[in-house]
Specification:
The chain is of the alpha/beta class and about 160 residues long. Helix content is about 15%, strand content about 35%. The strands form 3 sheets. An 8-stranded mixed sheet has the order 3-2-1-12-5-8-9-11, with helices on one face. A two-stranded parallel ribbon has the order 4-10.
Length: about 160
């Protein structure tokens, strides 16, 4: 299955599908697939509100505009992506906000950090991207976080600096 292949090579199902022009998760026995073994890293610069996707060698792959935490609430340090969620539910002060709700601030994707409660996510407020407006997470335009979600796997290193 694609999930087993992705796990074996430390990549994502989305990247395998994109690399092979697959429209579904169904693959035929003995199919030959292109599988990228490229590892990535993420650098978030809070002073510039940018997220840089880096190759394992440190080359810049892509730069995205992001929002970070108001009052410097985004934690500084090195973390790892520990979970990836499509259409995440938002748990807000005891309330459960479903993914389809306009009140769900997480947007279309969640990439959770090893620091509990923090991650990279989309937004329902695209005008806030580029500012310090979050409660501490890194916020991206939905189309950008969907692209990043396709590329980065669980275990990807995330470094956040001032």
């Amino acid at each position: 299955s694609l999930s087993k292949i992705a796990k074996k090579f430390g990549t994502t199902i989305g990247l395998i599908k994109a690399s092979n022009s697959l429209k579904s998760d169904v693959i035929l026995a003995n199919s030959k697939l292109k599988v990228s073994k490229q590892k990535y890293g993420i650098l978030v610069d809070k002073s510039q509100n940018v997220l840089t996707l880096l190759s394992k060698e440190g080359d810049i792959v892509k730069v995205y505009s992001v929002s970070t935490g108001e009052n410097n609430s985004t934690p500084v340090g090195t973390f790892k992506i520990v979970n990836r969620i499509k259409d995440p539910v938002w748990y807000n002060q005891g309330a459960i906000v479903p993914s389809e709700s306009p009140d769900n601030v997480l947007g279309s994707r969640w990439l959770g950090f090893s620091k509990s409660g923090y991650g990279i996510h989309g937004t329902v407020d695209p005008d806030s991207v580029g500012t310090q407006a979050t409660k501490g997470c890194v916020r991206m335009h939905n189309h950008d976080v969907e692209e990043l979600y396709t590329i980065v796997a669980v275990g990807t290193k995330v470094t956040i600096s001032d």
